[in-house]
Amino acid sequence: MRILTLALLAHAAGASSVSYLAKMADSFMSHGVNKVSGYGEATLYKGFEEAYRVTGNKAIIPWYKNQLDGSVVLENGTIVGWKDGFFSLDAYRIGNCFLWWYERTGEAKYKTAARTIRSHMDRHPRTPSGGFWHRDPSYPNQMWLDGIFMADSFYARWTAAFDARNRSAWDDVALQYDLIEAHTRNKTTGLLVHGYDESKVAVWADPVTGAAPLVWGRALGWYFLSLTEVIPLFPTWHPARARLTRYFISIAAALKKTQDSSGGWWLVMNDPYPGMKGNYIESSESAMFTYGFLIGMRLGLLDKREYLRPARKAYNCLTSRFITENADGTINWEGTVKVGSLGSNGTFEVSSHPAQLSEARS
Predict the structure, then answer these.
(1) Domain boundaries, position 35
(2) Number of domains observed in the structure of the chain
């Protein structure tokens, strides 16, 4: 999936990275992006926000605005295609884009659209412990790493902007991370599996912990990045800020240990699957982990003496292995997984079937 390439390159060091970033932004504008509110598009737009911040390319702003206005959000703040009562965390990621535009322009429609999502979250089904279901009715009582990225970065951003003194809101954001950490982290490797079922009835759920069996790299990448988005937003007076920082640092340490000699990371990360037929070094998670190392150092969360070398190695893997150029001078991002889901039995054999797990141009 190409969605994090731009954001990654925005935080890489050196003039060449800015060149890649500028070219990638131009390429995606040339290729065309669907004018919809899906999480893939929403995350790509984060990349464009970073591209604009770093390069100052003024063409990005009207292009980006045109992607949303009239197609995703109407003048009265209605979100096109929004289904009230359809509770899927994937639908909430676009709220970050609305807030970016509201902060930039002050146009009420963007705040109205973001408020629609925030209000919907108040009615979202929860596990008995208070965690958001990944989707209703498909995944009852299940929390996935993906969902943290889709919903809780927005939840924290809205709270920071409009409800910053609300201790209970910050407690609730932190709870989502605490639950995921308590149920999905392998204490030996430090890696987090894809998700867990609090009711322990899913076919893949561990009968004791409810945890899924596999560490799916992109899900872990989304979670890793969500921490980089949320930690700076958390008030310094709230104790969860230090706790979330510990979560981030511990994942970074685990990722440094599991980095492949190529510089990237295997799609299914837990033993015995790295190197197994059907598995491969996957570009989107490798980009997210690299981004996490880079932004972690920039935020002062990670020690440059420890993480700069693996970050550079990963970045070199990304640029040498996954970027290809077209005849017209535009570039592509290659080597991504199409989808990974806990809608199956959660085994490597089923998950690595071509219908679920395949390398694809993005």
Answers:
(1) 5-360
(2) 1
